[in-house]
Amino acid sequence: MTASQEKGATPQKKKDDKTKEEKINEIIAEGGTVVKMEVDYSSTCDEKLPQAESLAKAGKLNDALDMLMSLEKQCRTGADTHSNGRVLVLAVRLCAEAGEWNMLNEKIVELTKRRSQLKGAVTKMVQECATFLDKTPNKDALLKLIETLRTVTTGKIYVENERARLTHRLAMIKEKDGELKEAATIMQELAVETYGSMERKEKVELILEQMRLCLATQDYIRTQIISKKISTKFFEDGQNDDLQLKFYEYMIEFGLHEQNYLEICKNYRAVYDTKTVQEDTEKKMVAMKNVVLFVVLAKYDNEQSDLIHRVKAEKILQDLPKYKQVLDKFTTSELINQDAFCQQFEQELRDGVQGSAPTQVFSRNEAGDARWKDMLTRIVEHNIRIMAKYYTRITLTRMAELLALPESKAEDCLSEMVVSGAVSAKTDRLEGIIDFSQQDQDPLENLNVWSNNTNKLMDLVMKTTHLINKEEMVHKTLGAGSSHHD
After folding, report:
1. What is the pTM of this model?
2. Among residues 265, 293, 438, 282, which one has the least CA distance to residue 362?
3. Which residues of the chain have pLDDT under 50?
């Protein structure tokens, strides 16, 4: 063989490899087995299928089905998947066109239970039956057909996609009838994240439906579990903004129930960064307003502190002066006067002003009032942190005066912050003095420092011993050399 012939053979080999890969994918889609066709019944089907259709149109449906059942057995025993699929599809279509819905359900069960039934043919039949759902004469017929199809597809990997779509359809019907819990239970049966043949977008759509129904039934624990099945990397290509916005809408609803303000802020940040919101000025403004308010409402920690400074750097805040001022208040090392803060910001944040619509964060209802109360608590916590920064010791009376709170309330707030580790302080309740000076280190930390110092000391001792031994050896060697010389 020449070199040119060898080169020409390489692409052919690659083509053959690709064909094998395609065959493997087909085998997986068909449930892991492939049946070799023994007899080709294509010509027989071309002849008999039109005859069966003619019989059905003439009102002889049973005769047509008998002919098809006989032909189906031939195709099945001959392992002709394509022809068998054509026969099954025509059989169910004739039943549907004749309006024999009960007979259709019976034939579906009968055909799928036949011995050594070909998987590819069953898949085609189920897909054809799915098109009849909108043609059913009434709701009872629709529900029976869905239930029949769900029964025959149970546990069959090769029709898992069709089963998922049927289950979703059934859940929507139940929801429309007001049976929310039942609809949620039906949808939870699906483990679409394990379906290998389903497109990723369709998986996400079905998982979002599961989340929506769980939120509607106030099953927040299951909502959190299901939400982890969606990877946010799926949204990074910017092709599925509608699904991304829906996902974060559900996560925000879940966060509001859990009162996890920092997570809500992150979710609104993700909404703000989507292409759809960036192109709509009004939506962009609303998203940024929510980001600002929820980052301020979040409890102070390193992550919140970092996030609030990054939000403050956003250029869009130049168009939202009041919201920028709120951030300035919480990022400046100065005390915030509660009364002055309410007077300056409450009107715009809660009710809105001309040119700046309010958000739903502090709306005039029970939830809005609770969040406004949390905002005032954050002001108190901010003020205590500032005091800890500037004072080493302060009387409880003076601190309560600066916080504009009764002494008992001021002491409770300080105690909560000390317990959470936000500030370090000691209270002398007899003298009424609070000591903000740095407290002694934790005993474990002290022990670690002592151990480290001991190790350093022992290293120095070992090094010194080694050097002394070295010097002694050198002197002995020099002394022995000089005596020998003498």
Report:
1. 0.75
2. 293
3. 1-18, 21, 24, 27-28, 30-34
CA distance 411 to 366: 27
User: In the β-sheet with 393-395, what is the strand arrangement from edge to edge?
Assistant: 393-395, 433-435, 426-428
3-state secondary structure the chain: CCHHHHHHHHHHHHHHHHHHHHHHHHHHHCCCCCCCCCCCCHHHHHHHHHHHHHHHHCCCHHHHHHHHHHHHHHHHHCCCHHHHHHHHHHHHHHHHHCCCHHHHHHHHHHHHCCCCCCHHHHHHHHHHHHCCHHHCCCHHHHHHHHHHHHHHHCCCHHHHHHHHHHHHHHHHHHHHCCCHHHHHHHHHCCCHHHCCCCCHHHHHHHHHHHHHHHHHCCCHHHHHHHHCCCCHHHHCCCCCHHHHHHHHHHHHHHHHHHCCHHHHHHHHHHHHHCHHHHHCHHHHHHHHHHHHHHHHHCCCCHHHHHHHHHHHCCHHHHHCHHHHHHHHHHHCCCCCCHHHHHHHHHHHHHHCECCECCCCCCCCCHHHHHHHHHHHHHHHHHHHHHHHHHCCEEEHHHHHHHHCCCHHHHHHHHHHHHHHCCCCCEEECCCCEEECCCCCCCHHHHHHHHHHHHHHHHHHHHHHHHHHHHHHHHHHHHHHHHHHHC
User: Is there a contact between 204 and 230 (Cβ–Cβ < 8 Å)?
Assistant: yes
Name 404's Cβ contacts closer than 8 Å, sequence gap at least 6: 337, 338, 339
What are the boundaries of each domain within the chain? 33-154, 267-383, 391-435
CB 296 within 8 A of CB 378: yes
Q: What is the pLDDT of residue 439?
A: 57
Residue 36: its pLDDT value, please? 61
Write down the pLDDT at residue 63.
86
All residues at 6 or more sequence positions from 60 whose CB lies less than 8 Å from its CB, including other chains? none
pLDDT for residue 14: 41
What's the CATH number for 391-435?
A: 1.10.10.10
pLDDT of residue 20: 54
pLDDT at 207: 93
Q: 33-154, which class in CATH?
A: mainly alpha
